[in-house]
Request: fold
Amino acid sequence: MARRTEEEKGVLILLVVVFLSVIIQQAILYHFDNQLEGKVQIIKTEDGRERWILGVIPEIKEVSETMVEEKSEHGAYKVWARKGDYSGPSVMGITCAIAAIMYLVWYAIILGFPNRMDDLRPKIAAIILIIAMIVIINLAFMRMTADFIQTTSDTGDPPSVLKVTSAHLSLSINNAGILFAIIVHRLGIGSKKGDEGLPDLKPVRERPHAKFYKKVYAMMGLFAFITILEIVLISLNAAISEYAVDFSVWIIWAVVFLGHFGYYPKDWISGDRPKGLALMIGGTIVTIVVFIVIQAVTGGIISTAVASKDLHNEGLSLMLSCWMIFWLLVGHVAGYTKAES
Amino acid sequence: MRKKKPTDIERHQAWIEARLNALNEKVSVLIVLVLTTLMAIPIVASAAGSGSASPFFGATLNTVLLYGLVAANFVNFIFSDL
Reply:
């Protein structure tokens, strides 16, 4: 019992550190957005050629929006970023959710914070490797996007490189951070056998074939449920228009949920799992309410796309799916996904 | 009671299993990368064709990474146990 209380205390400290990291990251990116009030970042050109450092880092300058609108009919500028392309203030609830998941994965799984922080050097090396991979993939994709992005527009608003690549820079940074953390951890970089991170893959000969079919049937059942849910959310205008993005997060939630809570409803209520379910649902509702309050207090400057003036409820589907993934992982770290008490 | 000495065949089988198990994790990462690359093709192609973000797929890198996460979590789910 004393050890369980320690785990729960550890989770509280972990949550504080995760939320602090999210606030610091989003504040830095919001500062970049604020600097672009009435201005637009474009890629510098010299003698008709774009200026790139090492071929992937653009030389950027800021010009006024009206200058870009006037020139865009003749395709003079490649727009790098506009206000809102860095932190995504209009969908801050969603960008914060992805950031929170990334920091939770980094701290709890890679670093083992706060209860398993022995032998930190390989773990910090793993984090540095993940950061290097994030920078490389973002720069590579942005360079590629800059090559095919359109520069002319009838409406006077050619798309920006950041918008076409990442929607908002924080999203591509944080999603890359989560994916590379999983890959690096699977490759055994920075971790040793017995580290409680991701579940061990079954040894080849012991892989249970009966359970394989159980998993497939459970996955298909939940897949059908989330398809119907997505259709309902789209019909209620509670999902973003990029349906592939919206649906992908629900698929991730479904797979992570089955992986932690079991394949059938009777597994979901065994052991400590009801606590995990309560944390997942309750935590999500509380988080959405908190973000709506922040939205009201800031007059819509920091928005969630839920009950907002511009985007109405388009962000509700992503807010639900992203925050449910976050609180599910918190429940797992707190030990609330174990089948036995 | 004396422990039975493993035969040559049993030792060889144990060695093969240990090598296969070590490969297991690397192969799972390879599967994730291949699935991500396969998903990236239509996503990037649709954006490159129009010169702007696709209205269905959205931003290129963001959507590629999300489907990479789908693949990674799916591989974790299928090849691990509760």
About this structure: Chain A touches chain B through 58 residues (CB under 8 Å). Chain A has eleven helices and seven strands. The first helix of chain A runs from residue 2 to 34.
